[in-house]
Each structure stands twice: as structure tokens, then as C-alpha cells.
Specification:
Layout: H1 2-8, H2 12-38, H3 53-64, H4 89-92, H5 95-107, H6 111-138, H7 141-153, H8 155-158, H9 164-168, H10 188-204, H11 208-226, H12 230-250, H13 255-281, H14 286-291, E1 293-295, H15 304-322, H16 330-347, H17 349-352, E2 354-356, H18 359-381, H19 383-388, H20 391-416, H21 420-440, E3 450-453, H22 456-461, E4 469-470, H23 484-497, H24 502-510, H25 514-521, H26 539-554, H27 558-561, E5 566-572, H28 580-585, E6 586-588, E7 592-594, E8 597-604
Parallel strand pairs: 3-4, 3-5
Antiparallel strand pairs: 1-2, 5-8, 6-8, 7-8
Helix pairs in contact: 2-6, 2-7, 2-20, 3-5, 6-7, 6-10, 6-18, 7-18, 7-20, 10-11, 10-12, 11-12, 11-13, 12-13, 12-16, 15-16, 15-18, 16-18, 24-26
Length: 609
């Protein structure tokens, strides 16, 4: 394949490298922006481009540290002999983090550095793989350059998200290059893209032995996505269903051979799915509070990726009319299957009766499937001009590639700045985390030692750098160490130790504080973005939760104070904190300033036993 592409234009593969380097540059933009904002005062942390990355980074650090697959970096409750743990969102999706953690551990790379590098590598590979596919189908490396950049730089645009909302005044700038959120969905994303040229060759292949090897390779890639990210593997399954169905429908003269081939591939893909189902049956109850499964059979046709897929179908109709494509050809079938996949992704619930946060399909994978279909459709439509290598065709491709790069920088500018202040704060936390890491070296069980951090950002981010558990953090309930009720009680304790009361909580809930809503009611009550059945909190629910917290305060005793035993308190240097309740149960030292935090060492005032 490489030889075929490069033979079209001397040095053609260099254009693929150029596309990859641009996407790697965009992936590095948040880190570069952080270094610029800190003006040489960098403490070594990575810049996240999505607040959910902290949980992925914490799990990654745990794997780098040699902890088991079923670990909980927020509570330290890892699986051990005699202490089995249920499956979590992370332990089921283990393939991608292990793909990053194993080389990082061998090379001595830290979790923050690994997060940055995983994004860079995934972005480069994604662009290069798309370049190869588009260049091969169009016969023009220049089309491969333009197409790969358009599909990836325009991914957020194809979702109706990203910078365009702020530019048009219809929304806000979010998210930043969603496919490259580290390390999920970034790592399995190029794996999914690699399946496209693989199956394109599979459909064109006439030798049975080669088809067998391509089937095995496709099944391996699919298996990796299964154990990496739910929305990637389900999108891959939907696309394979579309691809197989169209191949059987449109290539009737090769029906028997294709039917056997797809049956073999389906059987191979069923093996990882069976294992996945078994693991899912052993999940923690907190997983259901996070995933927000909705039972519905309502169709969902009004999504931006669906619109983009329709444009791709129009391009294919034009290609058939211009006779630049054979409707029975592999390129036509591949492109049409990609164009139809978003419709299936957003409407599978009509058959299954279940819908799981379709916004993730819109932002993380369905939009890129649709944008890839569109550039392939256009490449097929103008294949005669592109294949001839005319100067005008190259100039158009170069101009489109330039526009795509410009838009890529626009996306970076608008969407990265949303998290500029948070990233500066996180980097300022690093000296405190490093101090805690040194303190942990003297601990018999550093992963179970627990810190009380008042800053939500620091508590969420702390396990990425230091080994200690945290009393409460925004993302702790996505792991399996805590049941839902215990997770809520830990939030109560977090508030109690800050000397906050039930009246404070009631005011916050009435004012729409999303942190309290997530901690006490789950992720589906603060926004209708994640679920179509989101309902705002009622006054009765808020008052009931306030009463529950008051009862918790009134019943607070030594068992609550010392379970878990807190070894450190971490407080931002510029915050005024009332330590009245904390000081009832713990003795504090004078504190050590580290970065933008003060770290207090704590000793229980009573026997914690």
C-alpha cells in the first residue's frame, strides 16, 4: 500500500508525514500554551484539554506504579488476594491505558508526560492513516493531505461543537479536538481508523489466504477497541455492519465468498465481546450512576454528523453520475458505509430500546466518521482530476489543506483558553503533590494513606502525581472502590471538615452548583447534554438532601473522623478556611507552603482504632 501511494507522486509519503506533524502540533498546543502562560515557571505538569482526563491520568499512574488492573487511585482500594473488587469503567477499558503504561514504566516516563505523548502519537498516526487511505482511493497524495487535515481539523465542526459556537454567538467554545482527549478516545481512535483501509483491501482481495490474514488483523484491531472505549468499539461494530451489509447487497456476484468472509469476521469479533459482557456483568453499582442508560425507542435524526453523512451520499451520487465511481466498487461501498454509520449510531435505540449518552457519538467518533465519508466522497467525485495530477488539482488541494490548518489553529485558540486558568492552577499544585510523594515514601501503605484537599481541582488531580488516596474528589465515583452511598457520605465528610453546614448545601443546590449535584445525585441531573431524560432537581429533593446532611453532622463521631484516617490536609494559600471541625479530631502542624498550596500534616487526637 505504501509503495502504491508513494509511486503516484515522488515523495508522496512526505505529505502524509506533514499531515501527521500538523495534527501532532495541534495535540501539543495546550501544553505549549501552558508553558507560554507560565512564562518559564513550569513545574512539570501536563495541560489537560478536558476535565475528565484527570481520572484517566490517575488510573494510568496507578498502572505505571505497578498496581493491579482493578485499582482505585482515589481510595487506594485495589484488588488483592482476599479482597476482590468489582469491575470499573477503567478496569474494563484496560487495553488503551496498558498500551501507554507498559512502555512508560519501561522507559521511566511519568504519567503527566505519558498523557502528553499519547496524544501526540495518536494524533500523528490518525492523520497518517487517513492520508494513506484517501491518497490510495483518490490516486493523489495531495488529496490525501487535504482530506486527512479536513476530516480531523474539522471534526469538532462536523459535530456542531468546538469554536464555531462562540464565533457565531450560539454557544461556547468546547470541546478542543475531541478525538484526542488523552488517552481515551485518543489511543483507540487511530486503531479504528486503521480498520478502514484494512477492510477496503479485504473487499478487494481475491486470494483466500490473504483474506484470512486480513480478517485476523481486523479482529485484533476490533478487540483492542472493545477493551479500550465503549463509543469507539460500538461505532466500529456499527460501521462493520453497514460495510458488510452493503457489500452483500451490492456485490451479488461474489455473495457466497463475502458471506463466508463476514461470518468468519463476525465470529472472531464475538469472542472479545463475550469476554466484555462477562466483565460488564461484574461491574460496580457506581458505574450505572455514571453511564446514564436511557430506555427509549425515539428516533434521533437531527444531529450534525448525520447531516455531514448526507452530504457524503450526495457526493457519491454525483460520482456515480460522473462515472468516477462504480457502485459495486470497494471505495464506493466503504464511503457509503461510513456515511450511513452516524444514522445507525444515533438510531440503534429504535431496535434495542436503549440509548447511552449519544452526545459521545456526536463528539468523539460519529463526527469523524462522517467527515471522513465526506472527504472520501469528494475525492471519488473528482477522482479523474486528482488522479491525473494536474497542477490545478494540486493547487486546490494545497489551498484546502491550508484552510484546514488555519481552522485547526482557530479551534486551538478558542477551545484551549477555556482551561488556561485551570491548567495554571494544576501546575501550581505540582510542588505540593511532589511533597506528598516524598511523604508517602515513609508510609507502609502509601496508596491507602488519605489526604483531605479543599480545592476540587487539586483533589481531582492529586492521584496523577502523588500516590495517596483522597477523601473526596469529583471523579472518585467512576472507580469501583466506593459504593454510591459511601461516595455520598465522603462528600458529606468533605463539607463537614470545611465547617460547612446543611444551610450552605441547600443554598448551593438551589443555585445549581454542579459539583454538589454530581456528588449527590449523579451526572445526569445538572445538564440535559448527557441524557435526553435529564430532570432538574426538585425543591423536595434538595430539602431532603439538606436534612440528610444535617443528620450526618449530628451523628459525626470517631468512626467517621478516622475512617479513612487522614494524614494530610491541602489548602490553597490564598483561601480562608475554617478548620474548627477538622481541629476537633486532628492535630495540625504549622504547615508547609508548596507551590500554590499549604500542606498540613495531621495526627488523630484520639486512638483511631
Amino acid at each position: 500500500m505504501l509503495a502504491q501511494v508513494s509511486s503516484k507522486v515522488p515523495g508522496g509519503l512526505i505529505l502524509g508525514v506533514v499531515a501527521g506533524l500538523f495534527l501532532a502540533l495541534f495535540s501539543a498546543y495546550p501544553q505549549v500554551k501552558l508553558l507560554y502562560n507560565l512564562d518559564g515557571e513550569w513545574n512539570g505538569h501536563y495541560a489537560y484539554n478536558d476535565i475528565d482526563e484527570v481520572a484517566y491520568a490517575a488510573y494510568l499512574k496507578a498502572l505505571i506504579d505497578g498496581r493491579p488492573r482493578k485499582n482505585d487511585p482515589y481510595t487506594g482500594r485495589d484488588e488483592a488476594p482476599g479482597s476482590p473488587q468489582p469491575e470499573s469503567l477503567f478496569s474494563i477499558q484496560f487495553a488503551a491505558p496498558y498500551a501507554v503504561a507498559i512502555p512508560s514504566r519501561i522507559l521511566g516516563v511519568s504519567a503527566p508526560t505519558a498523557m502528553t505523548l499519547s496524544g501526540l502519537i495518536a494524533a500523528f498516526l490518525s492523520a497518517f492513516i487517513l492520508f494513506l487511505l484517501i491518497a490510495r482511493i483518490s490516486g493523489s497524495p495531495w488529496a490525501g493531505l487535504a482530506g486527512s487535515l479536513i476530516a480531523l481539523c474539522g471534526g469538532a465542526l462536523a459535530a456542531g461543537e468546538g469554536a464555531i459556537g462562540e464565533i457565531l454567538g450560539t454557544g461556547f467554545s468546547y470541546p478542543y479536538f475531541p478525538a484526542f482527549r488523552r488517552y481515551l478516545p485518543a489511543v483507540p481512535f487511530p486503531v479504528f481508523l486503521a480498520m478502514l483501509p484494512l477492510m477496503w483491501h479485504w473487499l478487494r482481495e481475491t486470494e483466500t489466504s490473504r483474506r484470512v490474514w486480513l480478517t485476523v488483523a481486523a479482529a485484533i484491531l476490533f478487540s483492542f477497541t472493545v477493551f479500550s472505549y465503549f463509543y469507539t468499539w460500538t461505532a466500529a461494530a456499527a460501521w462493520l455492519a453497514c460495510f458488510g451489509g452493503l457489500a452483500l447487497l451490492l456485490r451479488r456476484d461474489d455473495l457466497k465468498r463475502n458471506l463466508y468472509g463476514f461470518a468468519a469476521l463476525a465470529a472472531a469479533c464475538a469472542i472479545p465481546l463475550a469476554i466484555y459482557a462477562l466483565m460488564l456483568s461484574r461491574r460496580a453499582d457506581t458505574l450505572d450512576h455514571v453511564q446514564l442508560l436511557v430506555h427509549t425507542r425515539e428516533p434521533d435524526l437531527f444531529r450534525f454528523p448525520v447531516y455531514v453523512g448526507v452530504l457524503a451520499i450526495v457526493a457519491l451520487i454525483g460520482a456515480a453520475w460522473r462515472k468516477t465511481a462504480d457502485p459495486r466498487g470497494a471505495s464506493f461501498i466503504l464511503t457509503l458505509s461510513l456515511a450511513l454509520t452516524p444514522v445507525l449510531l444515533f438510531n440503534q435505540q429504535v431496535i434495542t430500546g436503549r440509548s447511552l449518552q449519544p452526545i459521545h457519538y456526536q463528539v468523539f467518533i460519529g463526527n469523524y466518521i462522517a467527515s471522513t465519508a465526506l472527504v472520501l466522497g469528494l475525492a471519488i467525485l473528482f477522482k479523474k482530476e486528482l488522479e491525473n495530477g494536474a497542477l490545478a488539482a494540486k493547487a486546490v488541494c494545497a489551498s484546502l489543506a491550508t484552510l484546514a490548518v488555519i481552522w485547526g489553529f482557530v479551534e486551538c485558540h478558542y477551545t484551549v483558553r477555556v482551561l488556561d486558568e485551570a491548567n495554571k492552577l494544576r501546575d501550581g499544585h505540582t510542588p505540593a503533590a511532589q511533597l506528598l510523594k516524598r511523604e508517602a515514601e515513609a508510609s507502609e501503605d502509601p496508596f491507602r494513606a488519605t489526604i483531605f484537599s479543599i480545592s476540587n481541582i487539586h483533589a481531582d488531580d492529586s492521584p496523577t502525581v502523588s500516590p495517596q488516596a483522597v477523601l473526596w474528589a469529583r471523579h472518585q465515583h467512576v472507580f469501583a472502590g466506593l459504593g454510591w452511598q459511601e461516595s455520598k457520605e465522603r462528600y458529606y465528610k468533605q463539607l463537614y471538615l470545611q465547617t460547612l453546614d446543611d444551610r450552605w448545601l441547600e443554598r448551593r443546590l438551589k443555585n445549581g452548583d454542579f459539583v454538589s449535584m454530581i456528588a449527590l445525585f449523579g451526572w445526569g441531573r445538572h445538564s440535559d447534554r448527557l441524557t435526553s431524560q435529564s430532570e432538574p432537581l426538585t425543591l423536595e429533593e434538595i430539602e431532603a438532601e439538606s436534612r440528610n446532611f444535617r443528620a450526618f453532622i449530628e451523628g459525626f463521631d470517631e468512626m467517621e473522623a478516622y475512617n479513612p484516617l487522614i494524614t494530610h490536609a491541602v489548602v490553597p494559600v490564598d483561601w480562608e478556611v475554617d478548620f474548627t471541625n477538622l481541629d476537633k479530631w486532628y492535630e495540625r502542624d504549622s504547615g508547609t507552603k508548596a507551590g500554590n498550596q499549604i500542606v498540613y500534616r495531621l495526627k488523630p487526637r484520639s486512638d483511631p482504632k
